[in-house]
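User: I'm writing a short methods note and want a consistent example. For Lipase, I'll paste the sequence; you return only the structure tokens, no commentary, since I'll be parsing the reply automatically.
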Amino acid sequence: MSVKVLSVLVLLGSAIYILFSFPKVHPDCGLNVKQLIEKYGFPFENHTVTTEDGYILALHRIPYGRIKNNDHKREPVLIMPGTFATSADWVNMGENSLGFILADRGYDVWLANYRGSTWSRKHVKLNPEVNKEQFWDWSFHDIGIYDLPALLDYILHITKEEKLFYIGHSQGAVDFFALNSEKPEYNKKFRLMIGLAPVGYFSNAKSSFVHFIAAYQNEIQAIVDRYQLYEILPHSPLLATISQTFCNDNSPFQGICAFIFYLAVGHSNQLNKTLIPVIVSNTPAGSSFKHWRHAAQVYISDGKVPKYDYGEQENLKKYGQPYPPEYNLTQITAPVALYYGANDIFCAQEDIDKTASMMRNVVVNKRVPDFNHIDVVCGIDVVKVVFSDILKLMKQY
Ligand SMILES: *[C@@H]1O[C@H](CO)[C@@H](O)[C@H](O)[C@H]1NC(C)=O
Ligand SMILES: *[C@@H]1O[C@H](CO)[C@@H](O)[C@H](O)[C@H]1NC(C)=O
Ligand SMILES: *[C@@H]1O[C@H](CO)[C@@H](O)[C@H](O)[C@H]1NC(C)=O
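Assistant:
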């Protein structure tokens, strides 16, 4: 048989396969956070919190587990997702979801949505589609010093507690570092901080996306300004549909979908490919270019965690010095536990160790073999390898 005939046969075969293999859609596909929580039998509460700088944030609560037990005091836990993620990413792994596990263990679970993400696109004055430049003018710094205290104070007020547990993934950790170094009076409000794939010092990150932004900061900024591309990767129903069609268990393209995940967050054998279309139903959920540019500045800062660099003249006005000042991580006195994967392209061991060495009360610094940046939230073995540790640790605080 000639090569030509063979390739025609292969093409024909694939076409027939695609046409006749029905997509095997996971029943959780297309469900939003409320639908996921209620489907699994948990109560859902929808709260809104306004920050000092006017952003109106959605805060989603699972107040108790499937068995309601009134005598039991439920400690509040605030969970902050990483960039591009939302409250849904803590409840989209079925029974293995951290949000569900904590609720069933008797915690009062509060799932945050940072400014600009799907459920937090409101502001007292600004419209994210119209006042683009102003609405998207923020980085992890602003999430840390505005979103976090607003959420935290709201929860402590509602629950009449003095302290809470905090779990932050990726950006959710650097938000915490920014808050407690800038406003150290907040340290005492944290019973324990758990950082999953915690980004802090960042010079040894291996992400090509971050490397690319760092290398072409000014060129990209010019394009962003010209075409008003301040928002990046908002929630996309189209992407959700594409992922249901091409990433489901019957699709010959599922491997390509997994490959795209690995490019973004690092390789691993921990990705449950069946759940890709469930994850993409709600994620990515939007971020700002300024946030990524700030991350890229930290990356090229040569071992510092500086504030946003506006250029010499603006820095002089904003900070009173030509270079942006650094966050003072030694101001962080709240107890901190860090978990990260050995294949994480954002969290290198050197960077994590340096972050840990600066803070005063690090109680755990655990490196998990084979895990990547998101496996600490949704890896196949995450319950056994990370969550069970966290549950034990939380009991001690
Ligand atoms: C929460 O309430 C807001 C305001 O009423 C509403 O726009 C939003 O859809 C609700 N969120 C969910 C997840 O249902
Ligand atoms: C992946 O997720 C599916 C659907 O929730 C589940 O049935 C399956 O057991 C998971 N696979 C592994 C290896 O955990
Ligand atoms: C950082 O904070 C520590 C502890 O409060 C303090 O001793 C030190 O002077 C601060 N460093 C800078 C550069 O502000």
